[in-house]
């Protein structure tokens, strides 16, 4: 099987020759360790690299190298799904302060200062003017009004985004290319947003309607590129459970999820949802009633495990379940055991694509990384009599 055929078989409940593999993401340090050279891959580090490239007039070189390294890391690890794009911030700085620090905006009126930390690979705001104000119900409402007005002029290309078309033409015949879309979520970092769920559910509904409508309008174009899967979702839970009640999820999130999933299916696409955390309290709505086809970022440390998910939702295709925390602080034996557990479950029940569920952090021990990679490569084969489509 080609990687694309293998992944589609997993979604269709058919037997595969090998367990499909996809690791969600890599820090630059880890990708560089694997490739044996500096890898243009990662989170905030890629945003900082892009800032440097824009400042130096080398954006094309940055994009070319980023695409090459994203492809090379997938090939090196026998991935069946390609993640070809990492974090972007295509905004040219207005001033370079030092090698790690850039200023954006008008230095006299409206600006923000961002600095890169090589140890964490984060690129973050360290100062800004005017200072960021806390959200209020009133500012949320004004933001929603502005977004609703902007939506009137949002008309995606029916032939699909040019970058998606280019990636699919280059890689899509042999691999499934990870295409983002269908994001849906309520901000949870601010107390006011959580209060608004209780006090102004009508406002939150409008906010989610905008996201759902943007997603629905984009599906025809994505499908026109010959993509098959849309990777969407949005974090909304911790290890203790969702940040808001199952009732709020049912009334606010579920109807919009169904709209997005239905639009995907109408256009011949699978819709995947991602969130960290313990999702069991809303699992029936999220995975059973919404029409979602796949679940990625499966957080084993929060109690989301392949066996329980497969038993309750046999139609759902699962991606991941190796914990980046295990890789980062576990022993080599811990890593091998967790990897083998996921591979064994995939062979037993099918519909599972094994990999690390989240970003592989800087500082992850090299011994642990290679233990996982070697275990995957040596134990992917599925015997002819294996049951790998037990999804009725």
Describe this structure in words.
The protein is of the alpha/beta class and 392 residues long. It has a domain of 272 residues: TIM Barrel, CATH 3.20.20. The chain has 14 helices and 16 strands. The strands form 5 sheets. The protein has a 6-stranded parallel beta sheet with strand order 8-9-12-13-14-15. The longest helix has 24 residues. The model has no long low-confidence stretch (mean pLDDT 95).
Quick one: biggest sheet?
6 strands, parallel
Q: Structural class of the helices, strands and pairings?
A: alpha/beta
Q: Tell how many strands the DSSP assignment holds.
A: 16
CATH class of the domain at 3-29 and 134-378: Alpha Beta
Parts with pLDDT < 50 across at least 5 consecutive residues: none
């Amino acid at each position: 099987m080609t990687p694309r055929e293998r992944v589609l078989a997993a979604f269709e409940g058919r037997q595969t020759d090998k367990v499909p593999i996809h690791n969600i993401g890599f820090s630059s340090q880890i990708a560089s360790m694997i490739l044996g050279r500096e890898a243009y891959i990662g989170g905030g580090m890629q945003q900082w690299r892009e800032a440097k490239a824009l400042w130096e007039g080398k954006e094309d070189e940055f994009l070319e190298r980023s695409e090459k390294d994203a492809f090379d890391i997938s090939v090196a690890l026998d991935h069946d799904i390609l993640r070809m794009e990492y974090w972007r911030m295509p905004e040219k700085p207005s001033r370079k302060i030092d090698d790690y620090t850039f200023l954006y905006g008008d230095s006299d009126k409206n600006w923000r200062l961002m600095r890169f930390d090589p140890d964490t690979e984060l690129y973050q705001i360290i100062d800004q003017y005017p200072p960021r104000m806390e959200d209020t119900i009133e500012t949320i409402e004004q933001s929603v009004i502005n977004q609703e007005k902007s939506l009137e002029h949002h008309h995606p290309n029916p032939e699909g985004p040019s970058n998606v078309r280019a990636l699919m033409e280059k890689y899509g015949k042999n691999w499934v290319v990870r295409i983002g879309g269908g994001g849906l979520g309520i901000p949870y970092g601010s107390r006011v947003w959580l209060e608004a769920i209780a006090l102004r559910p009508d406002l939150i509904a409008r906010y989610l309607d905008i996201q759902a409508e943007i997603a629905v309008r984009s599906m025809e174009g994505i499908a026109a590129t010959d993509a098959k899967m849309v990777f969407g979702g949005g974090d909304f839970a911790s290890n203790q459970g969702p940040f808001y009640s199952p009732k709020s999820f049912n009334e606010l999130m579920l109807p919009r999820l169904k709209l997005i999933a239905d639009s995907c299916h109408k256009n011949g696409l699978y819709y995947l949802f991602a969130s960290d955390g313990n999702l069991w309290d809303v699992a029936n709505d999220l995975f059973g009633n919404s029409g979602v086809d796949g679940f990625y970022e499966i957080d084993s440390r929060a109690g989301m495990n392949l066996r329980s998910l497969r038993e309750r939702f046999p139609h759902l295709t699962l991606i991941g379940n190796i914990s980046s925390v295990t890789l980062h602080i576990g022993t080599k034996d811990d890593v091998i055991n967790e990897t083998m557990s996921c591979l064994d479950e995939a062979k037993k029940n099918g519909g599972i694509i094994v990999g690390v569920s989240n970003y592989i952090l800087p500082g992850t021990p090299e011994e642990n990384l290679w233990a996982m990679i070697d275990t995957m490569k040596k134990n992917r084969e599925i015997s002819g009599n294996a049951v790998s489509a037990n999804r009725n």
